[in-house]
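Design review, sub-item: ligand-bound model
Attendees: FS, YL, KQ
YL presented the inputs for the iron/sulfur cluster complex:
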Amino acid sequence: MSEKTIHLIITRQDGPDKPSYTEEFRVPYRPNMNVISVLMEIQKNPVNAKGEKTTPVVWEMNCLEEVCGACSMVINGKPRQSCSALIDQLEQPIRLQPMSTFPIIRDLMIDRSRMFDALKRVKAWIPIDGTYDLGPGPRMPEKTRQWAYELSKCMTCGVCLEACPNVNSHSPFIGPAPINQVRLFNAHPTGAMNAEERLEAIMGEGGITDCGNSQNCVQSCPKGIPLTTSIADLNRQTTIYSFKRFLTN
Ligand code: SF4
Ligand code: FES
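KQ shared the predicted structure:
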């Protein structure tokens, strides 16, 4: 009996400005494999389905437990994390593509800088001096802490940006994930001291008004983050802030 194999069709690209092409692979099946373990097999033995020696497929990964977001790619048409994509649950041939919203570095490896730049733009942190012990911070009401914790699960994977029709290489829209972080940090008792700076940051070009309310983001987020609720809340916050700014100027 012939050996059971996993059939993959991988979209590859040898560099940022190189043309893309597809290459097929057949990897010996083992129970409980995920997409990353299959890619590792290709890395160990880079031979394509025609039996030709090829270059190892390049991708990014880190935590291997759906926490870092680095391994995100489009698997059978759906943007998701390859570390949690189990082979037994995928229809074959398995098609792997890089997420199209981000510049390609090589093969399945993309450059997520636009997300990290957006986090810097919206000041997605709490500016406290870490050089001496400040003692315990202010308490958060338990009810707030519970929903804020849900928002904090974002792993900057980029799946919501990939799903959003308004985020692309021609658009400056920062996308849902950084906007959600503004809600998280504005809800924190210490973070609230810089709330207006964060609101200013999302009121400019590429900010919250570029959201087209397609609702794709909330359906795609692997962490189940209520992104559209965050966007609606920030719409309220920016409107109130605009009035306040108008009245005090
Ligand atoms: S909000 Fe969800 S989909 Fe978007 S980057 Fe964060 S974890 Fe990924
Ligand atoms: S390797 Fe971190 S989310 Fe997959």
